[in-house]
Design a protein that fits this description.
Blueprint: E1 15-16, E2 22-23, E3 31-34, E4 40-41, E5 44-45, E6 56-58, E7 77-79, H1 82-87, E8 91-92, H2 98-112, H3 120-132, E9 137-139, E10 148-151, E11 154-160, E12 163-168, E13 171-172, E14 176-177, E15 182-185, H4 189-196
Parallel strand pairs: 6-8
Antiparallel strand pairs: 1-2, 3-6, 3-7, 4-5, 9-15, 10-11, 10-15, 11-12, 12-13, 12-14
Helix pairs in contact: 2-4
Length: 211
């Protein structure tokens, strides 16, 4: 066997799509996260797609911490934006995105009728069950802004009432009317309920109204 270390590929397989797949994409993400631990050996993914139920969305930079991507620790994953990460089954981190995580939990409580916001572990348990369950089809108009869906072999963002934008690894395309049809919801049910209560995910600049 060769004693030389494996060459670093470019791009690395650490970008997450709205469908939850981890793949190699050259486009840069605006947020990062992880799935509870290490999913790689060297610069390649292992067969594991998660280590724990703790799938989080983090800031790219926090308190000056520096990490080696695909280094000795957990596997850093990158997302186009928060709507993409939410669709893939992640939720805001309670450390580096504490304000967003607290609002997410408060709206989760409002959506479920709970008296108090749930702990992170309780949210994670529900999202994990939803990630493993089948995706449902429903009318596109029933999805809240910020949700993503699959239609005509493409992923789409509900960008406003009656409007949608096609998702690409580099950003969103021009806004179009929502289809008058059933679509496959990508964003999990628990998160859709939070979005319906008014949670506004951080979107890529290409999703702004004048983009």
């Amino acid at each position: 066997m060769s004693s030389h270390p494996a060459a670093r590929p470019s791009p690395l397989p650490n970008r997450v799509t709205p469908e939850g797949c981890i793949t190699a994409l050259a486009a840069r993400g605006t947020l990062m996260g992880n799935r509870g631990g290490r999913l790689h050996e060297g610069f390649a993914l292992t067969r594991r797609r998660w280590v724990s139920r703790r799938w989080i969305i983090c800031r790219l930079a926090f308190r000056g911490r520096r990490r080696q991507v695909m280094g000795p620790g957990y596997t850093e994953l990158f997302f186009l934006d928060e709507a993409t990460a939410l669709a893939a089954g992640h939720r805001p981190c309670f450390e580096c995105r504490r304000a967003e995580a607290q609002r997410f939990a408060a709206l989760w409580a409002a959506a479920t009728g709970a008296d108090l916001p749930p702990r992170a572990d309780a949210i994670d348990a529900v999202l994990h069950r939803e990630r493993l369950g089948p995706r449902i089809r429903l009318a596109a108009g029933a999805l809240p802004p910020g949700a993503l869906y699959l239609h005509a072999a493409r992923c789409w963002l509900v960008s406003g009432t009656g409007r949608a934008r096609p998702w690409t690894p580099e950003g969103y395309g021009p806004q179009t009317p929502l289809p008058d049809a059933e679509v496959t919801a990508l964003t999990p049910p628990g998160t859709r309920a939070v979005l319906a209560r008014g949670y506004a995910p951080l979107l890529h600049p290409s999703a702004t109204p004048d983009a």
